[in-house]
Structures are given as C-alpha cells and as structure tokens.
Design a protein that fits this description.
It is built from 18 helices and 23 strands. It has a seven-stranded mixed beta sheet with strand order 3-9-10-16-13-12-11, sandwiched between helices. Strands 20-19-21-22-23 form a five-stranded mixed beta sheet, sandwiched between helices. It binds glycyl-adenosine-5'-phosphate (GAP).
Length: 522
C-alpha cells in the first residue's frame, strides 16, 4: 500500500539522523525542544545553500554588500523595532493536560479541518464524474460543500477580526464555540488567552546591580538597520543599494513542530534593499520575481512554489508576500518579502536621537530611505530541499534504494572514489584520483563492503557521482563513473572526470539562469 505523506516525512526525518544530516540538540540528555544540530552532511548542505544565497546577492549585484552583525544588540534596538511591545503570540493552556498552545494555531487548524472536509467532497465527486467533472460548479452548488464553505467564511472572518483587534477574549470564545478540544486530554477546559513575548532574554554584566537585560535577536534585520549609515558612508553606497546578512536568530516558539520548520534557534538570510520613497512597490515586485527565480533555478519543481500575499499587513508595511513551498504537510512559508516603508530607520532615528538619512545627489535632497526586505530561513530552505530530494525506489529484482536526489550544486559530497578491491594497487590509484579532485570538489573515499553497498551508501547521502577504479584502470587510465539519479554507468578517462563533475555541480549554472532572466539586475 502507498505511504502517506506523513509516513514519508517521518522516514525522511529518521534518515536525516541516521545519515548525519540533523541530530536533536544535546541528545545524550534527551534533547532540547525545537533545537537541532547539523551533522557532517547537514552542515555541508546548509553551507552550500548559504553560499548560493550569499553569492546570488553579493556577486550578482554590484550594489549589494554583506555584513555580519553581533547577535547581542543594545536593548533599545528592540524597543525601537517594536519587538518588546508587540512580538507576541496568543497563548492558551489546557488545565487538564497542562499543555500550552497558540490560540491562533488551534483556530487555523480548525480552518484546515474544514478545508479538508471540502476537499474530500470534491475528490469523491471527481471520482464519480470522471472527465466531465466541473469543480468550480460543484463547489458553488453542492449543499454539503456550501455549508462547510459558509462555516469556513464565518470562522475566518471572526478570527481575522479578533487577530486584527488583538481581542484575546474573542479568540478564547472562538475556541469554545468551535468546540476545539486539547489533542492530549480531549477536554475543553481552557484558560484565558494571554500574550506571550517570543524574545529570549539574558543579562549582560557581572554584578546583579549593573547587569543589563539584553535579548537574543529574534531577526537579523535589525543588525542591518542600525548599521545603515556605517555601511552607506564607508562603502560610498548610492541608493538603491542592499545589505545582506546570514546569521542566527532566536524565538521562544510555543508551538514548535515539524522538525526544523519551526525552531527556537534558527538561521536567517536577510537582505534589506534601500530605495527612494515612492519607488518601493516597483522594487517589491522586482525582488518578488528575483527571489522566486532563485528558488526555481534549483529545479525542485516549479509547481511546488506559490506566492501568498498577506491580507493583513503590519502597520508599517505597504506590501508583503510569502514564498511558500509544498512541504509534505502542506504549502508553507519559506521566505517573506516585505515592503517595510521607512518604519525601521525612522524608529531608530527617533530612539537613538541620530539623524538617519541619505542625501540623494540626483534629487539634491535628503530623505529616509524606504526598505524592501527579503528574509528566508536557512533551516526551512534545508527542509524543502530534503523533502523534495528524499525518494524510495523499488529496483528491478525488488530491491529498495533510498536516494537523496539533491540538486548536485547543493549535495554535501560531489564524488566518491572507490577501488573495486582493497589490493593490487587499486586503493593507491583511487587515492591519486581523490587527490586530483579534492581541491575543487568535496570528495570522499570508500573501500569497505561490496560496490553495490557502497553505491547505496552514497545514494543515501545524495552524492551525484561515484567513480570506480578497477584492474583495467591501471592499464587504460579509464574509470567507471556512475550517475546517482539514473544509476547509469559509463567508462571515461581519468582526465575527463574533472570536466564531467564540474559541468553538473558548478553553481555558476544557476547564476547564469538568474542573470539571463534578468538583464536589468539591480
Ligand atoms: N525580518 C523579517 C522576519 O524575520 P519572519 O517572517 O518572521 O520575518 C523570516 O521570518 C523567515 O525566517 C521565515 O520565512 C522563515 O523561513 C524563517 N523563520 C522564522 N521563524 C522561524 C522558526 N521559528 N524556525 C525556523 N525558521 C524560522
């Protein structure tokens, strides 16, 4: 029987641990909730993702430069940014199970359940009517679907209003009216809904009196805003220009689930693009398209991406969208693109008392620049790559192989060199080939077990090429190269290996796609 997506997801998570991609943090002490460590293969894959992002920003754009700001920042930063007062999630506890939930997530799950009911009716009808099925008509006329849709509309409206008005009593009332039960205790014995700030805090300074409460940054963006003038002046940057940064961020997520999708310590790749006021929506559109192309160039499948425009905008934003990826648990946000107006720079000017403006020589005037932000989670990107790469294949003869069909550019190891046997000078020849390749490609060496088993091991970690050295190699200078996805093998000259591997794993292949589609790169 075919596996459900949930079962495949669980297996992928187990695979990540078994093959050195991701381990639970401090596992010998039973782990720490929603915190993970990347293993020997995971860190390579993650670094390749970061490199692809960093270079797509800073190599392909003359007017984007990088920084690496500290995680600790002056506490006033977070007053100015609004995080101290408003970076909250609505929390509710079940008195019987003592479990804590996000009230908004409970309601969104309820909305999801209604959507599932509608989808089930649609799927049933499609089966019944076959090719003649008109889904739009069915949705408009089927009484059961109409009833569910009405329920969904009513609930969605109540929920949006409660969230927009920050009405915690109404959120609780919705949970009661919808008869939402705790998944653990099965009861409706709920506390009131409270706001919970997501920032972690600690103290800086040695004495209790002199210590200052500081926060672990919940986003990397503020490190860019507070350095706007430093970078603009020292780099003699002219608007429009961008500042890119990759770094850790921390959020005390209440509902942490779905593996590395929602973590308490995670990594972001953010770029703030500073533009003239009034030109922000043009740049917003530009960055939407560029970022989607960046994702699609990896070849995970164009149909797996969609934009989700925000209906409810933060008070400082005048446009916002998410790039969502089709995870096994539905379309989920991987990246956010936000038009943040001049909110952040103005707030920092106000709280610091410093003038944060740009003199535009073409307009001969000073202004506070507007900002377009692109913000992507490294870990979510890692997860989307893993979810689409993990495959279980039944081979001729009934054997099963688990293979990670990773984009070769991102694969942790590009090539594994194997002597057919551990004698007759084959290991020495194989080592020579490793030495020839290792300056350009992450190369491994394996001489243990049968060739078949060694191929499987490399499939499981996504290595695109295996190179086998046999007795003929010593005479004809040729080796067998085996391609991961097709399992095809070809006999090639040792001196051609470099070119064959390079053609497949060169990140410039992706950059060319990005640039070709956009001759007018900012
Ligand atoms: N500076 C804007 C900002 O931080 P966000 O939508 O809160 O915006 C941006 O976060 C991205 O960071 C998300 O699209 C997601 O990929 C990632 N992210 C946010 N919270 C996360 C978490 N708890 N675990 C993993 N990734 C997270």
């Amino acid at each position: 029987m075919a596996q459900t997506q949930e079962e495949t997801f669980k297996k992928m998570v187990a695979h990540c641990k078994e093959y050195g991609f991701v381990f639970p943090s401090s596992e010998i002490y039973d782990g720490l909730g929603a915190v993970y460590d990347y293993g020997q293969n995971g860190v390579e894959l993650k670094n390749n993702i970061k490199r692809y992002w960093w270079e797509a920003m800073t190599l392909l754009h003359e007017n984007i430069v990088g920084i690496d700001a500290a995680i600790f920042m002056h506490p006033t930063t977070w007053k100015a940014s609004g995080h101290v007062d408003a970076f909250n999630d609505p929390l509710i506890d079940n008195r019987d199970s003592k479990k804590r939930y996000r009230a908004d997530v409970l309601i969104e799950d309820q909305l999801g359940k209604i959507e599932d009911k509608i989808q089930k009716e649609v799927d049933k009808a499609r089966k019944r009517f076959g090719d003649t099925f008109d889904e739009a008509m069915f949705r408009q006329t089927n009484p059961r679907v109409m009833e569910h849709q009405q329920h969904w509309n009513m609930l969605h409206e109540r929920y949006s209003n409660a969230m927009n008005n920050n009405d915690l009593a109404e959120l609780k009332q919705i949970i009661l009216d919808e008869e939402i039960v705790c998944p653990i205790s099965g009861t409706r014995n709920w506390t009131d809904v409270r706001q919970f700030n997501l920032m972690f805090s600690t103290e800086m300074g040695s004495t209790a009196d002199g210590a200052m409460k500081i926060y672990l940054r919940p986003e990397t963006a503020q490190g860019i805003f507070v350095n706007f003038l430093n970078v603009q002046k020292t780099g003699r940057m002219k608007i429009p220009f961008g500042i890119a940064q990759i770094g850790k961020a921390f959020r005390n997520e209440i509902v942490a689930r779905q593996f590395v999708f929602r973590m308490r310590e995670f990594e972001q790749m953010e770029m703030q693009f500073f533009v003239r006021p009034g030109e922000e929506l043009k740049w917003f559109e530009h960055w939407k398209q560029f970022r989607l192309r960046w994702h699609k160039a990896l070849g995970l499948g164009d149909e797996k991406y969609r934009f989700h425009d925000h209906e409810k905008l933060a008070h400082y934003a005048n446009a916002a969208t998410d790039i969502e990826f089709q995870m096994p648990f539905g379309f989920k946000e991987v990246e956010g693109i936000h038009s943040r107006t001049d909110f952040d720079l103005s707030q920092h000017a106000k709280f610091s008392g410093k003038k944060i403006e740009y003199f535009d020589p073409e307009l001969n005037q000073s202004y506070t620049p507007y900002v377009i932000e692109t913000s992507i989670g490294v870990d979510r990107m890692f997860l989307s790559v893993m979810c689409s790469a993990y495959k279980e294949e039944v081979l001729e003869g009934g054997d099963m192989r688990v293979v990670l069909m990773l984009p070769p550019v991102l694969a942790p190891t590009k090539v594994c060199v194997m002597p057919l046997v551990k004698k007759d000078g084959l290991p020495e020849k194989a080592r020579e080939i490793v030495d020839m390749l290792k300056f350009d490609f992450k190369t491994s060496y394996d001489e243990k077990d049968s060739i078949g088993k060694r191929y499987r091991r490399q499939d499981a970690v996504g290595t695109p090429f295996c190179v086998t050295v046999d007795h003929d190699t010593l005479n004809d200078g040729c080796v067998t190269i085996r391609h991961r996805d097709t399992m095809e093998q070809e006999r090639v000259k040792i001196e051609d290996l470099h070119h064959i591997i390079y053609k497949a794993v060169d990140v410039k292949n992706l950059y060319r796609k990005l640039v070709a589609a956009d001759d007018n790169l900012a």
